[in-house]
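Working notes for the structural subgroup meeting. M.R. asked for a predicted model of this chain before we commit to crystallization trials. I am recording the input and output together here so anyone reviewing the notebook later can reproduce the run.

Input as submitted:
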Amino acid sequence: MAGLTGTFLAAALLAAAAAPARADEPAPAPAQPDQSDEAAAPAQPPMSLPPPPASKPASGEGELGSPEPIAGGAGPSQGPEHQDACIDENVKADLFAKRKQRTSRERLFQQTNRHELTLQGGYYVSDLFDGTYTFGGAYTYHMTEDLGVEASGGYTRLTSSGGPELERTFAVLQNKPRRQLTFDADLIWAPAHAKMRLGGGITHFDLYVAAGAGVVDSVLSQNVAGNGGFGLKFFGRRAFAVRLDVRDHVYRQQLLSQVMWVNDLTATVGLSLFLPVTE
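Returned structure, recorded in token form:
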């Protein structure tokens, strides 16, 4: 028994002496990866998601953007620079000519620096007397296609089948002439030049306005008169035109001892000759 106890004590002492020596030993270093192996290993590409399925184009759209040529049409869509390079120069010039504005085209009938002589006649409407005929003439010088100056004159005769007051007025005047003369100087401006189909052909015409001043000479008035109006001028071949004019004359008339402002309207049709005849 004593011998067994001594054997256990000797083993415990040996174990206690060996424990500090193991604690003082350094811990083994972790294993380092071999760099040569990493360099030799190929790099793995990053994972990518598969592209979404292409949506089916709407009807009529797939043909325009399709890279495959369409039967009877052009190939794939190309940039503006490539398209311009493919257009023939003659075709391009024709397209640009068709796109020119109407205002940039030359007129078939030229008026600039030409003289216009007009004979005209029509109907005269008076504030105080009955409507009656009128006739006269005009001379117009066209400075440009849109501007001109005009001098005109007209003749009419004062008539009345009215009431007793007018009859007494003419009884007082008795042997005095009843003719009335008008003289006007106007500025003519044509803001619009147009054309229309008339009688199976194309007719060109101007829409113009007129304004100016003049004199009305009659037994009832010898005063300055202002006038304004508008007209249409239909052009024929080279040197002829037909005019439609409406003018309003505003002036004073004296009837017995009463002076009043009147508006007398004139509507006329005229035939014009342009000089020189050749443009």
